[in-house]
Amino acid sequence: MNQGKRILSSLRLRKSLFLTQLSRAPSPNPQVNHYFYLSPSLPTQIYTSATILGAPQNVSFSSKPQSFVDIILSNDWSKHLEKDLGKLDFPVTHEAVMYLLKKLDKDPKKAGNFLKWVINQKGFEPSSAMYSLMLRIYANKDSMKDFWITIKEMKEKGFFIDEETYKSIHSIFRNLKMETDATALKHFYGRMIKENAMGDLASDVSELIKKQEWGFEVERQLREMKLSVSDNFVLRVLKELREIGYPLKAFNFFKWVARSLGFQHNTVTYNGILRVLCREESIEEFWSVVEEMKSIGFEIDLDTYIKISRHFQKIRMLRDAVELYELMMDSQFKPSLGECNILLRSIAQSNPPDLDLLFRVVGKFEAAGHSRSKIIYDVIHRCLTNLGRFEEAEKITEAMRDAGYEPDNITYSQLIYGLCKMRRLEEASKVIDVMEECGCIPDIKTWTVLIQGHCLAGEVDKALFCFAKMMEKNVDTDADLLDVLLNGFLSQRRVFGAYQLLIEMVNRFQMRPWQATYKLIIQKLLGERKFEEALDLLRRMKKHNYPPFPEPFHQYISKSGTVEDAVEFLKALSVKDYPSVSAYQHVFQTFFAEGRHSEAKDLLYKCPHHIRQHPAICGLFGSPNSNSGKVKRFTRKSLSSA
Fold this sequence. Notes:
Elements: H1 2-13, H2 49-52, H3 65-73, H4 79-87, H5 94-103, H6 108-122, H7 128-138, H8 144-156, H9 163-175, H10 179-195, H11 197-211, H12 216-224, H13 231-243, H14 247-260, H15 267-277, H16 283-296, H17 302-314, H18 318-329, H19 337-349, H20 355-367, H21 374-386, H22 390-402, H23 409-421, H24 425-437, H25 444-456, H26 460-472, H27 479-491, H28 495-509, H29 515-527, H30 531-543, H31 551-560, H32 563-573, H33 581-593, H34 597-606, H35 609-612, H36 615-621, H37 636-641
């Protein structure tokens, strides 16, 4: 880890190099073209490893990529626009094209037209990662024709849809109710896996690497396989090793194909290995690859950055996420304001929030010429109030006003949350009055924060007083606030009080509690042997069209319930006259499991005729010596003699 930090420090000391894109050595794979961006204000005579190798210095002077995006977004796509774009010296590199596509992802038609243009007019060859990005862009109801055309092109070029892309798009289709396309994609992906011989070989390689420690023997076996290596093949092996949790072995393979097979990595494979190494156990190797990429003029593409940054945030490696953000902001492919906001929110959600990391991100954002947005002010304010630094938070609020942003419910809610956290409940309650004086009417979310703060502080009765005050102001309550209040009651073991509040809210205000709320209160009531109240909630769940919740009732009835309890429970399960046969089966089985055979027989006697005579039920009560398939018919006499 320390080595990684030293590498990053050295990167920052040489940050001026990020203003240039150095010429690259020729690649044996045509997927990477060799045009570069170089600021006209800098000397053009720069020596790199590519220069030493005698590679030609093809340097392209160009407007910044963002300017190129602005031109495309502000014009309809046409032959005239293509002609104008041709006059610009656009750097046709993997990173630049990925950057443009990510910026155009909200306009699938223009993204597709741009990619076709760089392919047809600039001779650019897309990578598998680029095709995967285009599939995600096309994954909507209006672009399905282009989606399937792109899949066909991928197949013709020997590319594959990786599992991550497949799952992401399949989920999108399901969410958009595009069941036909989801099914078609599932079938295509299944056929592709079976038909792709290269995929099988990649699996063989990853399986070999997985089974033993990396060393001479692994390398010997790999050499004997006489692999034909392409960037597509390397990516497949890397992804398979990532999916089974071997990032360091993936790194060894990445190095081995270059060292032993003479494979020359390009920007596509470098970005691929970064996606694998962004784990805690391989973070030093991650930053070493970043340094290596920088030394030969490759950059992290925007799609790779977003995936890695989100992963760092997910596994709470926030310092690395911030350092990666700083790295990208020093490049020409800068993350968007949205990515900055997402990173800031992740920092704010940590406990406690790291103000150093927060202000590093904000500082880098401002250094790029941007001014603070309302969201950025809110995130800073949230962190300060969360830490109890209210005077500094007030200064941020004043700076926000000076910048033209008035405090709103978000701002005041954060202040209320911080005061409640510090148990300054009276001051938190007075914030409501201050808001009203300023003309900012507290909404339901602000009230919820105040009431939850009281509940978490153990002041449930004061929380109810705040709730009553809210109702006087005609603020409509919701299921979230009800859940907060009920959890407050439960935290003080006031289970029956929680039940009474729930009933009152449903009866008086026609509330529809969350399904999870019903389930929680039912479990707590049964834990205190309040069967009738729990059954009442089960009936109310049915009226609110929630599915039945029988599991805790099974446990309660089997251990301590009566036969009458079981009958009432079964009646409550269904909107019909009688519940399903399986519902009766479950109750009988729970009685048997507790050794309560007499109660099971009594319940059977009270069941309707069609249930008593059903084969599944008869099978439960049949003689263990009866022939297979023979059903024992139960009568009053047979039950009494049993």
